[in-house]
Design a protein that fits this description.
By secondary structure, the protein is an alpha+beta fold. It has one domain. Helix content is about 25%, strand content about 50%. Strands 1-2-3-4-5 form a five-stranded antiparallel beta sheet, with helices on one face.
């Protein structure tokens, strides 16, 4: 039986260990990783948010699969794409 709480905590820790996360949270104490509780095609989805005084602002949308991390970006036409996170 898989302990999904442990798996998600590991994935959340992996996100927090990225240069990308550290750049978003540098000098801030309100940045958190939230589990979106959504999976598709083996990808687990997370949001990086700034949460302060009851208000959350989404800073990034991340997905994780087998140790691979990607963030969602948008092109000039508004189409979304996934790029690797360092």
């Amino acid at each position: 039986m898989v302990n999904y709480t442990f798996v998600y905590r590991c994935e959340m820790k992996a996100i927090q260990d990225t240069i990308y996360y550290r750049s978003l949270s540098q000098g801030r104490t309100d940045v958190e990783v939230w589990d979106d509780r959504f999976s598709e095609d083996g990808w687990d989805y997370f949001s990086i948010v700034a949460f302060s005084q009851g208000t959350a602002k989404k800073l990034a949308y991340i997905r994780v699969k087998s140790g691979q991390l990607q963030r969602r970006i948008y092109d000039e036409n508004g189409d979304d794409h996934w790029v690797e996170v360092a």
